[in-house]
Amino acid sequence: MGEEMKFYFESYGCTMNQGEAKIMEDIVRARGHEIVSEEEQSEVLVFVTCTVIETTELRMLKRLKELTKTGKMVVVAGCMASVQKDVILSNNPDALILTPQYLKDMGKVADILAIGDERPKRDREYEDALKKSADAIIPISSGCLGSCTYCITKVARGALQSHTSDILIESMKKVLSDGFKEIRLTSQDTAAYGADIESNLPSLLKSICEIEGEFRIRVGMMNPENVKPILPEMLDVFSDPRIYKFLHLPVQSGNEEVLEKMGRGYTISDYLYVIDGFREAFPNLTISTDVIVGFPGESDSDFKDTVDLVKKLRPNILNITRFSPRPQTLAKDMENKIPSRIAKERSRELTKVQAEISRSINAAFVGNKEHILICEPGKPGSMMGRTNSYLPVIVKESVALCQFIDVEIIESKDTYLIGKIL
After folding, report:
1. CATH of domain 369-421
2. Would the pLDDT of 1 be above 50?
3. For a tag on the chain, would you pick the N or C end, based on fewer CB atoms within 10 A?
4. Which is more confidently placed, 34 or 392?
5. Residue range(s) occupied by CATH 3.80.30.20 in the chain
6. Which residues contact residue 98 at a Cβ distance below 8 angstroms, ignoring those fewer than 6 apart?
7. Which residues lie across from 35 on neighbouring strands?
8. What's the CA gap between 130 and 401, in Å, rounded?
9. What is the pLDDT of residues 264-302, one digit of tens each?
10. Count of alpha carbons within 13 angstroms of residue 183, beta-carbon side
11. What is the CATH number of domain 130-363?
């Protein structure tokens, strides 16, 4: 009892999952135990799961079976832990299940595993983190305010639970003092932050911007219906040069009737109102959006509306997902399912449209001078940095992580830029 043990963490899915995995790592580390980077070195396997679509679920189950065969203790966390406990236990009856709502109970899980030593322990894996990346992930809330008919994440994570700003500011100061320079604020919907604690996202960002130093903040995905009421305040706080001019605003469909069936809670007009507001304030804004193709009842005409909207919107990034019916969601039992063949064709068409858009946008940056943050190693002999609008820039020269440098963009590709140090 009280012995030191070695934990291996494996996380899948969104940045929220990655951020929560880091929180659990910190809890385990604070109790005097070691985080290892190789499964073979560990005594406890912590598996942070995603189950957003069926193919992801099947991938998770395959990996769970592999982890189970090791004979080691497996802790299953993430969304699958919340909505598919029976499936997990049917594959590993001895697994410990930790739902997202109780991730801070990782300490209690440690107690169950007879891990009681409170002595802080120096951890080489943690100290090596800055050799791999310049960014840290801070979840600002869990759950959401939405009622999307297709979303199993809502089922898994439940109602909105925002972390208080004092806790978040403390976390922010800690990762900055550890040397990280890019902080990614994440949630199911960052724009909903604070609605349950009489606060809001602009207020949180203003508090963060009071912290001195040169760093960058990337605000995670926001749903349009929750950005619209706070748009003026958002545009004001986004003017801080340390906040990336990056907007992840999912649209999901360009057709009003499909949006209503999805339960999205906004119109195309609402969506464009937010986009236009940000673009007017920040002309070099990077826009990332999401689209679901093959939603039940989506006609050829409905899909054309989506294609037309994407062409009008001209996003830098388009995340395309083929509809997948998920357990415990309303969309699972909707009629007029779209054959997978048609959904794949629609996905391919949108992919081609987006490739042309991205190629055109990136080409316009050639010749520009940019101040970038070096974020992570690229291929051998290169590093990857981010512009103030979060565009990736490859530098084929030797430069340290977490450094701010000036570059000239000398070439463009479909998904990134190439820069030369000035």
Report:
1. 2.40.50.140
2. no
3. N
4. 392
5. 130-363
6. 24, 75, 76, 77, 81, 105, 106, 109
7. 7
8. 7
9. 999 999 999 999 999 999 999 999 999 999 999 999 999
10. 27
11. 3.80.30.20
